[in-house]
Amino acid sequence: MESQNPGQSTGNGGAPTDVKPSLDPVLKSIQKSLGILHQLHCTVSSFTVNSQLTLLERVNSLVCEFDEMQKAAQNCDIQVPLEVAMLIDEGKNPDEFTKEIINKCIQRNQTTKGKSEAFKNLRKQLLEELEQTFPDEIEAYRELRSVSSAEAKKQLQAQQGLPNGDVKIKTEH
């Protein structure tokens, strides 16, 4: 499995689209806001009456930078699941959300696979027991199934079907 470039998105049916240019102003604004927050923290931790004007200037510059960030973010169309935002608020790694979703998919797949196998085994067992009780009827059933299967294959081939069941589509140039 290939890792995806963080500056790319697959929002158009799997084809990577470069979204980095629209994110650059947002990322720069975030970096600038973090710098202002650090300066603000330093000012607050060593606050004196003389530093009140500096504190107000830094708060105002932070508010202005948040406004710039919001304006820059309007050009970005990125959907973030609410669960991911909540994990980030809780201080957790958002990759855990992805890992959890993949694990749930694997678990559901295994459950479905188990059910499918159980039905196959049930069918096999029923056919074995029915064959012992009604051998002639089961023989007729199997012949009917093979004829019906052969007809379905012929129809599929007539529709220019591919081996995996897909149908070929002619493209016009």
TrEMBL record:
Its main location: nucleus. GO terms for molecular function: transcription coregulator activity. Keywords: Activator, Nucleus, Transcription, Transcription regulation. One of its GO terms (biological process) is positive regulation of transcription by RNA polymerase II. InterPro entries: Mediator_Med10. It is found in: Nucleus. Residues 1-22, 152-173 are annotated as: Disordered. One of its GO terms (cellular component) is mediator complex. It comes from the Eukaryota. Belongs to the Mediator complex subunit 10 family. Component of the Mediator complex. Component of the Mediator complex, a coactivator involved in the regulated transcription of nearly all RNA polymerase II-dependent genes. Mediator functions as a bridge to convey information from gene-specific regulatory proteins to the basal RNA polymerase II transcription machinery. Mediator is recruited to promoters by direct interactions with regulatory proteins and serves as a scaffold for the assembly of a functional preinitiation complex with RNA polymerase II and the general transcription factors. This is Mediator of RNA polymerase II transcription subunit 10.
